[in-house]
């Protein structure tokens, strides 16, 4: 049967890509990718027919990948991070379904390291409790629904991961987000640009600082991932970030149950 | 400087572990792990000093790993899935901070494929929109807060990932969860046991079926991950799951902007 892979390449470069994702690329004759990601994976792409295009050409890339698979060429389409987290999985499946190609092409999707988890690993242990992941892009999602989700997440004390916080042309959802942050107590905020890449830059700050900097904050753009801690998130003695899970409320350092007072 | 790694091994076995995680294990003299995960990673552990223990001995394992690193042995502690998602990261950082060992030990944490994303990749593209990840374990989290988070997530139409839904002794949070599901329209539900392992079993059903089966549902236990779709999640023609991102509302199949009516 003809085969199409959706390959999640992880948070950047060759460090994060799983063995099964590498094998899928090896097994493919054609590789379809956003131009930047193809450059990062160059060692894996030698001898492959490569089709790349820029941002906002997602439908074009998916359509091309499906067409190549239909021609009988084993094909993979690369999605950075994880294909299910604001990546290519949904569009490939939606197009495959619209064309009803399920009898013709076997589709295999492989997961990857999403930017939220890559960022979390770099700053200590900011996530231990329940969390919500929200994209501030209102290109395909109603801006009111985004705002509702932000406010609900803050109200029930989720750790928050924010994707696509703003771009030059798209600032209103981020303005709404900052407005929502003014209505809760100060929390720790992590601002991560280009995580997993050579130009990676991560800073640990507070929601009050984000609010003070407002829309002019150049560290917040299309390649930025934000993590907002919950009400228990704190700095460690070495200025890293910790959201305690609560073990040490219940157990002592040797793992024994604490006596109740 | 002495070094301790927190290694996320991914969703199971050797397929999901990243190159950087493999390198960290290679660089370690001592490997500390839950017994089951050590067996799965056996090809990587030859020649290492291995310390394993069973479930609920997390503090013991962390304490031992830190002690080995203090002795100058490069050590890694294995966390299945991703160490930040109900894994070992928070406890290691909390213990390191309580003992203020930051000058003595360099701690390096590496991310992995969490079960939610591994499961999502197996059933189509169930996640394309904002989502919330909630553990139903009330061992360390207030049961009322868990319930509040479930209800808030359903009210703002998050896709939901549920970890640790129930165990033999712990059923009340799952009962509360089913009660919350009765108050929203029927949604698609994915029930995944042991994802990424040889005994993997995934079924696609509905929230009404979960409610009907109630607490006696044997497919829901400690090794189960649930995904609840949002209000737009639907089945594809091949009975997989799709949460459309909305591209095809705005663009036609060739990627051109649709004309406004």
Automatic annotation (TrEMBL), chains A, B:
One of its GO terms (molecular function) is methyltransferase activity. InterPro entries: 4pyrrol_Mease, 4pyrrol_Methylase_sf, 4pyrrole_Mease_sub1, 4pyrrole_Mease_sub2, Cbl_synth_CobJ/CibH_dom, Precorrin_MeTrfase. It comes from the Bacteria. Signal peptide: none annotated. SUPFAM superfamilies: Tetrapyrrole methylase. Keywords: Cobalamin biosynthesis, Methyltransferase, S-adenosyl-L-methionine, Transferase. Its EC number is 2.1.1.-. Gene3D superfamilies: Cobalt-precorrin-4 Transmethylase, Domain 1, Methyltransferase, Cobalt-precorrin-4 Transmethylase, Domain 2. Residues 3-209 form the Tetrapyrrole methylase domain. Transmembrane segments: none annotated. Pathway: Cofactor biosynthesis; adenosylcobalamin biosynthesis. One of its GO terms (biological process) is methylation. PANTHER family: COBALT-FACTOR III C(17)-METHYLTRANSFERASE-RELATED. This is Precorrin-3B methylase.
